[in-house]
Amino acid sequence: MTDFVTIEKGLGPEGRVAVVRFDRGDGINALSPEALRQLTQAARSFEDDGDTSVVVLTGAARAFSAGFDLKDSEGRLRKSMDIGSLRRHLKLGPRLSRAWQEMEQITIGAIEGFCIGGGVALAVALDFRVIGRDAHLRVPEIGLGMNMSWQSIPRMLHLMGPARTKQAVILADQRISATEALEWGLVEEVADPGKAFDAAMTLAAKVAAQPPLSVAMTKLTVNRLAYALDDLASHMDVDQFALASLTDDHKEGVAAFLERRKPRFRGR
User: Fold this and answer.
1) What is the pLDDT of residues 46-63, one digit of tens each?
2) CA angle, 59 then 65 then 68, to 5°
3) Phi, psi dihedrals of residue 161, rounded to the nearest 5°
4) 5-213+232-259 belongs to which homologous superfamily?
């Protein structure tokens, strides 16, 4: 099994900063099921780590992530799964984003190149996001006949508000530039190209210099208040995804993506 994720600890003030690097070495950094498992395990590895206050998550130099890997052999087995197996398999994404959101440490994403689909879902589960000036984000799920899942809609809604969230998700072909992402509230800082990681580490050092227990308790309080009602709606997005995956529009969307042509949706 190939390791897509590496962890380095003991950085920054008092050694309280850690870096999690996700890099498949292919310039695309797609989220295969195995990558989802490794990233989830990376987040969970900090559960009993009282020495780390901040975790910086970064991707490859050219891409944070291209989102879910539609060409992965395990992922393509979805089309032959029964509904029960499909629902269990579809929980990999929500499990990943929840693991990162619920970390006690402050989390910061360093985004270069492109951040697409599941990459955006992972990014909005973090506390802060720093993006390179020439990078962009995009949410293509609806264009593939799917819904934006992984409990991402409430998180995006908290950051951007209703109209911008609809714009980002429904207009699936729209690239969100770094400048737009900052204006919309989707990211907190724009860095020079190639410098997102450095800027994220600078922010991490500032956080790590604060009293660790006070920081952790404040994060927990803010998250509990902000996300208290999210499960009332977002719990259903796995079933929405499972339902959407059975539609002709989904089959057409994926086929068009793989064949690099414009899809023809028919609402069925």
Assistant:
1) 999 999 999 999 999 899
2) 140
3) 90, 170
4) 2-enoyl-CoA Hydratase; Chain A, domain 1 (3.90.226.10)
Query: 174-208: per-residue pLDDT in tens?
Result: 999 999 999 999 999 999 999 999 999 999 999 99
Identify the bridge partners of residue 224 per DSSP, sorted by sequence position: none
